[in-house]
Amino acid sequence: MSREATRPVTAPMLEYIRRVSLRESEHARGLRDATGKLRERGWACAPEQGQLLALICRMTGAERVLEVGTFTGYATLWMAEALPDDGTILTIDVVDEYVDVGRPYWEAAGAGKKIDARTGPAKDVLHALIDEGMAGAFDLAYIDANKKDYDAYFEAGLTLVRDAGVIVLDNMLWGGAVLDPGDDRKSTAALKALNDKLGRDERISASMLPLDDGLTVCVKRPR
Asked: What is the pTM of this model?
């Protein structure tokens, strides 16, 4: 195989990765199983992505996390479990029905007190946080929501995280659609534009990882 190509992760390889490295709590696994019963189960992050988010929380000593796109709160729980006892994660979604799936698992894990789940259009909530003087208040922002608004979420996140804070964006490969010149969907166009922007944005250091559907990790450079 060419050194320029990334080796594909086959189903047996993924099973091996999860078997030898995944440290998923029983409550996170329960929530993953519950989410897997939903028609929209594909919206959830992969368990190895959740574990990476938890690892980033621990590596950076994160105490305050911002999440755009809760869904059932599977990634939320991974990060909440990694935060210190007085840590908080503010997570935003527009559908309480999905969030309610996760709440019992958050509580059973003892993480419910760390999670501030807010309902409403993410752009409105993010702008309200900025207006409230929360700029620079967060250590980490995780974005996994409406793709056509990703740039707006990124810009708000860049304001809300501290210097040297981290922004993580999911689904940046969009099932390979970013390679299709004929895909003119608004979500695909938005992700293509944002990928190009992040590659040259001097306000951040960034790396795109071919993990599941593509995960871009950014670090905010001090001004």
From this structure: 0.95
Measured in degrees and rounded to the nearest 5, phi and psi for residue 32 equal -60, -40
Answer whether 75's CB lies under 8 Å from 212's CB: no
Sheet holding 88-93, edge to edge: 115-119, 88-93, 64-68, 138-143, 161-170, 215-220, 204-209
**Separation CA 178–CA 169 (nearest Å):** 15
Helices (DSSP H) in the chain: which residue ranges?
11-21, 26-35, 47-60, 74-82, 96-108, 122-131, 150-160, 186-200
Digit-coded pLDDT (tens) for 146-203: 999 999 999 999 999 999 999 999 999 999 999 999 999 999 999 999 999 999 999 9
* pLDDT tens figures, 63-84: 999 999 999 999 999 999 999 9
Token pair of 113 as six digits: 């007190």
Identify whether the C-beta of residue 191 lies closer than 8 Å to the C-beta of residue 213: no
Distance of alpha carbon 46 from its chain centroid, rounded? 10
Picking from 220, 210, 157, the residue whose alpha carbon sits closest to that of residue 179 is 210
